[in-house]
Amino acid sequence: MVEEQTNSNNDNKNTNTDTNNEIEWKESSHLCGSRGAGFSLAVKECGDIDGEPWLLLHGFLDNAATWDVLVPKLPLENKRIVCVDFAGHGLSSHAPNGAYHLVDYVLDIACLITKLGWKKYNVLGHSMGCAVAVCLAGSFSEQVEKLILIEGFGPWPIPTSQIPKRLAESIQADLKRLTNSTQPRLFESINDAATRRSEGNFINELPVNAAKILCSRALKQVSGGYVWRSDPGLLIPSRTTFHPEQTVAYASQITAKTLIILTKDGIFKRLLSVLRGLNPFGIIGRILVRLLIIYTRIRMILSSKKDFWEIRYYGIQAVHNFSQQLRVVKNLKYLMLKSGGHHPQLTVPDEVAVHVKEWM
Fold first, then answer.
1. Shortest CA distance to 217 belongs to which of 26, 44, 38, 40?
2. What is the pLDDT of residues 54-93, one digit of tens each?
3. What's 67's DSSP letter?
4. Are 319 and 268 in contact (CB under 8 A)?
5. Which of 36, 158, 189, 236 is spaced 20 to 30 Å from 13 by Cα?
């Protein structure tokens, strides 16, 4: 395992979003029986239809357009690139029951792969797409040959003690959705929607020009403006949870050649600031993370601000779990880019492409 690599002397945070119109994308829709009759997954693809299969999986509340900037910078000769919209995202069907659980996404993708007739394939995932990819690669290790994960890894673990609380939150949110009929938010322009998407990014702020790329596939034009295509049910907490030991079990079964790309201002930005930039997955970093777990646990017990410290405690526990997952993958390399936020494939695509090319 390579503990850490940094991207070359480029600290420029300007976003390069040249989508290169020379790529010829083909749009299609595939009926999948995974969620009932009529359910379909939308895909956009390019490259050689008989080439080496690459499945590209986007993050939560994103869509297949998240790859529009990166793909043109990759070697496409003898490659078939298939970018999927997950259920409830982009141009894909919404779940009939409004439920979106990680294991259901895995089933959807398994159905799509069967439709495509792939026996062996490779996966490039971002954020939530990484979690789906890890479940696929851990469950069907004989099928997945190469795995590239950007700003993510396996399913986000939920401590056993928190599972009842998560179930209650999910059911309450679902009941509220079923009893309260709300109109979708209307945006006057694509720029307005992109600004909102930028400000509302779950992990750090997304540059507006990058958000605009996602909006190209995320919006539906209606009378008076635009509304989101995505299903509001996506915001309901999942009732499917993963214990930390389960996430490690999936990782331990991966045989694919695996590359993980993280950024210093991405999902681990807050922790890295606490560790003064020290690699949290190296020997010293892992020790410090364990000490932070003990410290935040004590503060959570003794402090009057229990909720404040509880969030931090479980967040650091998740980082520890991430480290455990990395340690059990048999053929793994990971690297840490200096910048790029949570969407480096959109914000620093040239940097990401350099490393992805080597793995492809």
1. 44
2. 999 999 999 999 999 999 999 999 999 999 999 999 999 9
3. G
4. yes
5. 189
Nearest residue to 102 (alpha-carbon basis) of 64, 131, 125, 79: 131
Compute the distance between CA of residue 112 and CA of residue 31 in angstroms, rounded to an integer: 8
Q: In this predicted model, what pLDDT tens digit does every residue of 311-344 receive, in sequence order?
A: 788 788 888 888 888 889 989 998 999 999 999 9
Evaluate whether 317 touches 295 at the Cβ level (below 8 Å). no
pTM: 0.89
* Residues involved in catalysis: 127
Helix (H, G, I), strand (E, B) or coil at 15: coil
* CA 89 vs CA 38, 71, 77, 92, 229: distances in Å: 16, 20, 29, 6, 7
Contact between 26 and 46 (Cβ < 8 Å): yes
CA-to-CA dists, residue 232 to 129, 179, 194, 204, 228, angstroms: 19, 14, 18, 21, 9
Please state whether beta strands 40-47 and 79-84 pair in parallel, antiparallel, or not at all (unpaired): antiparallel
Q: Which two tokens stand for residue 226?
A: 């635009």
DSSP 135: H
